[in-house]
Amino acid sequence: MFIAILTYKKPLEEVDRHLQAHRDYLAEHYAAGDFIASGPQTPRTGGVIMIKAESRAAVDSIIAQDPFHINSIADYQIVEFTPTMFCNPTLSDLLK
Q1: Ranges of the chain whose pLDDT falls below 50
Q2: Among residues 86, 71, 83, 80, which one has the least CA distance to residue 5?
Q3: Whole-number Å distance between alpha carbons of 49 and 89
């Protein structure tokens, strides 16, 4: 399991110009089963994506497709972790 922490490096006006393409990218990866959860940070300085992937290389390949990455809108910090506790049994099923 991975968490991608996005930090915007462009003004929000430029972020917003690429937002629909980014949301389309997110929808594709939700449909493929790659993403578990995502959303903007508060305050709106970036975003967070929870990613289900077999390896860091797979995550890097997924991130390379993000319009925010392609257009240099955000920097990405990738954190790998092993979930061991869950608040909802359904979530543990998603992580298998």
Answers
A1: none
A2: 80
A3: 20
